[in-house]
Design brief:
This protein is α/β, with parallel strands linked by helices and about 475 residues long. It is built from 16 helices and eleven strands. Strands 3-2-1-4-5 form a five-stranded parallel β-sheet. Strands 6-7 form a two-stranded antiparallel sheet.
Length: about 475
């Protein structure tokens, strides 16, 4: 494992050097590939800049964020990497500016653009290669077999690049959960408290198991410098939560923040929505024209505005390219009268997998999610957001139960956590939980991650029908 972490350090240096070389190629071309001319006019000063960035790498990634000693979820590591690179880019520019050194802005831009792409890409490829060779996996001893332990393992399992591999589960008391998810050996409590330094220990006990938690920490913290403890925090807005400590008291204080209550956060989210939606509407206008023509050939309006519930309970027409026949309501009524299975599916999900109302071009639009492109107009008008809860009809609000306030608190989105977590294959209870989590834990970075994941989901057509 140590060798792989050292390789990550060297791969960062490799990415930095490759970006530096790519940045200097335009300058060498200008100087007719004369290394001597390049060195005296600019090259020697660029070396100083690279050395400065390298020192920044060592300090930020090695000591501040500990990328070379700790395993982190991909999106957390990427966010920290981009933050460090952005800061170092500013420092690099300031170094040349304040020292009044000559440097090519083209070379500077190419170098840093390359580095922003190369560093996370190279890191990912190294980890994937190590996983394939079996050199990055680490066995996990999960202490706990209740709901909290199950959620903890699902979270770790979803972060494949971290390399965690469930090896054994320690049985505990006070658990009445069906345990078919446990497919590895089960250890007794006594066996689980015996140290095994080849294992990564993850402690995920329930709220009522305070005595067991105290015993685990007292016994195992002497042997494991990086023991992971997962407190039962389901329902708390953990993203952006600030831990506070009281000196000499074993009390952890958590300051919860609801970012979307802050006017500045809402302004940032709205500005992002306007910029992206307007840009996409302009860039995709030829595609809009083509799809408009194809849908019009199915006899009917090209666009369809279905009434959905927006922020604060305000209804609005959610625009889509029409994918159904003109008499869709009559076709649905007839189907639900004669097909009990379809009626049960409709009452449970408000969707049908084999929907007879969908046209031929409609099937294509739905499988590719192109039918939802007109919602960019809803985003531009301020009725929707690029990312948010799934837009629902009035009758669906009752299914949100106590979480309905989370839905009404924000604008529904063209995409959201439900989109990147299985789309139509996700049960309704999970959809509600995902929508509530999104509102509690909103950040612009989360929106960017969801948008990037949406591209992957749409291209793979996961859960689309």
């Amino acid at each position: 494992m140590l060798m792989i972490r050292q390789n990550l350090f060297f791969i960062d240096i490799f990415a930095l050097l490759m970006a530096f070389i790519l940045g200097q190629l335009p300058r060498l071309y200008e100087f007719s590939w004369s290394l001597n001319t390049w060195w005296h006019l600019e090259g020697q000063f660029r070396i100083y800049g690279v050395a400065l960035v390298l020192i920044g790498f060592l300090f930020a990634f090695g000591f501040v964020y500990q990328h070379y000693t700790e395993r982190k979820p991909f999106w957390d590591e990427l966010r920290e990497s981009l933050k460090v690179l952005s800061l170092l880019m500013i420092v690099d520019a300031a170094f040349f500016f304040f020292n009044k050194m000559h440097f090519s802005r083209v070379a500077f831009g190419v170098q840093w653009f390359s580095l922003f792409l190369l560093l996370p890409t190279c890191r990912t490829l190294v980890k994937l290669h190590a996983l394939k060779k079996g050199k990055w996996q680490i066995p996990v001893r999960l202490i706990g077999n209740g709901e909290n332990a199950k959620e903890a393992w699902l979270a770790l399992k979803s972060e494949g690049l971290m390399g965690y591999n469930l090896a054994e589960v320690v049985q505990t008391s006070h658990v009445n959960l069906e345990q078919s998810w446990i497919t590895v050996p089960k250890l007794s409590w006594h066996e689980g408290l015996k140290p095994n330094k080849q294992m990564q220990v993850v402690v995920a006990l329930e709220a009522e198991q305070k005595a067991e938690l105290d015993e685990v920490v007292r016994v195992l913290s002497r042997f494991y410098p990086n023991m992971i403890i997962v407190p039962p925090t389901r329902g708390l807005p953990l993203w952006g939560m600030q831990p506070l400590h009281s000196f000499s008291h074993e009390v952890l204080l958590l300051r919860a923040q609801n970012s979307l209550l802050r006017p500045s956060a809402r302004l940032i989210k709205r500005a992002f929505d306007v910029f992206v939606s307007l840009t996409l509407l302009l860039l995709l206008s030829p595609l809009f024209a083509y799809l408009f023509y194809k849908v019009k050939q199915t006899e009917g309006d090209a666009f369809f505005g279905h009434q959905r519930i927006g922020a604060n309970g305000n209804p609005f027409p959610c625009y889509k390219f029409r994918t159904m026949v003109k008499n869709s309501a009559e076709v649905l009524d007839e189907l639900l009268k004669n097909d009990a299975q379809a009626k049960a599916e409709w009452e449970a999900e408000f969707k049908l997998k084999n929907d007879p109302r969908i046209t031929q071009i409609g099937h294509v639009l739905r499988r590719t999610s192109l039918d939802e492109l007109p919602q960019l107009w809803n985003v531009l008008r301020g009725e929707m957001s690029l990312v948010g809860p799934r837009p629902v009809v009035q009758a669906e609000l009752v299914k949100y139960g106590d979480d309905v306030d989370y839905y009404l608190h924000v604008k529904p989105g063209m995409t959201g956590l439900w989109q990147v977590s299985g789309r139509n294959d996700v049960d309704y209870e999970t959809r509600v939980a995902l929508d509530a989590w999104y509102v509690r834990n909103w950040s612009l970075w989360n929106d960017l991650v969801i948008l990037l994941k949406t591209v992957k989901v749409v291209l793979a057509r996961d859960g689309a029908y």
